[in-house]
Amino acid sequence: MRWRKSSHSFESDASTCVEAASTGRDARVLLRDSKHPEHSHLRLSAPTWASLLDGLKRG
After folding, report:
1. What predicted TM-score, i.e. pTM, was given to this entire model?
2. Total structural domains in the chain?
3. Backbone phi, psi, residue 18, to 5°
4. I need a surface site. Which of 4, 18, 28, 49 has the fewest CB within 10 A?
5. What's the pLDDT tens digit per position in 4-45?
6. Sorted alphabetically, which InterPro entries does this protein's record hold (predicted)?
7. Euclidean distance between the first and final Cα of the chain, in Å?
């Protein structure tokens, strides 16, 4: 699984990073705190992930 860091993490304080990964098989997206990758993560469905991104873009 390949974790990708948010592009906004590079623009702001590097201590507030979020990483996302696609599970591929079941169309889920995983989110984790890059400062503590060993801790638990959130698992979102593809529609929930799309809704979250839309809400963040709208502010």
Report:
1. 0.73
2. 1
3. -120, 140
4. 4
5. 887 766 555 666 688 899 988 778 999 998 888 889 899 999
6. DUF397
7. 30
